[in-house]
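Table S2 (text version). Query chain:
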Amino acid sequence: MGLLPEFMKLGGEGGIIDKMKHGLTRPMFSKHEDVECAVNLQETRGVGIRIEKLNKFFGTKHVLKDIDLEIYAGETFSIIGPSGTGKSVLLKHIVKLESPDSGEVYIDDHPVFNPADTEPPNYRYSMVFQSSALFNSLSVGENVGLWLREKRICKEPVIRQIIEEKLALVGLEGQEGLMTAELSGGMKKRVAIARSLAMNPDLILYDEPTAELDPINTDELANTIIRLKETTRNTTVIVTHDLNFALYISDRIAMISGGRIEEVGTPAEIKASENPVVKAFINTTTKGIK
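Corresponding structure-token output:
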């Protein structure tokens, strides 16, 4: 079907979509023929995230080391650091795509890996993958509305309206008919965001959103994310090695290095940090530019 690599594992039992269903409310996966939408997709709320003593090994490699971190409801939070330090692995634990060897992730104070009850969490989340993970054989509109149509969440007229609204939010109004091959890298990222917004998530996660983007497209993407925060109340978590991007869009930032959290603070606090690991990353990334 002309899939991008990261998206090839999305379908089927045990795939990413199957695993991510735990973050969606029960009515989303049942049929409601007598209503416009099976669930309320009009409102969002931020969720709080608390990570306690999280450890993850891959073989003998200790990737995450006693991670303690708190992300506040409704904030835009970035996790920065050099490549290979565990940023994306940490992100995947939040959405249960990876399981820890020890420790716990709490969302709105409910444990993700050792739940006290069998009721599904009362929040929706989505993830924007590094490669955008669009279906090449589908149009822009079909990519954005794919999940809604597959799960029969809403009736067709409502789905078309949602597609139009979400594309307008990311600056792609009226581009439903374009094919993936016709899109620039920046446009693909924005279509991926629109697809994630189709379920109106309370939590949205981005894995290296500026990867392979030039400075102009990176700036457009940053402004898109900032505009979205003006119209929603959701919590946004971003993993990136792009320091300037993180400083521009974030309420707070965590610096991770060697599998450990080095420092957490506002952009101003991170820039003023006296932590030698943080200072070295900032000086290397900016080449000493003030």
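Notes on Table S2: The CA atoms of residues 56 and 281 lie 24 Å apart. The chain has a mean pLDDT of 82.
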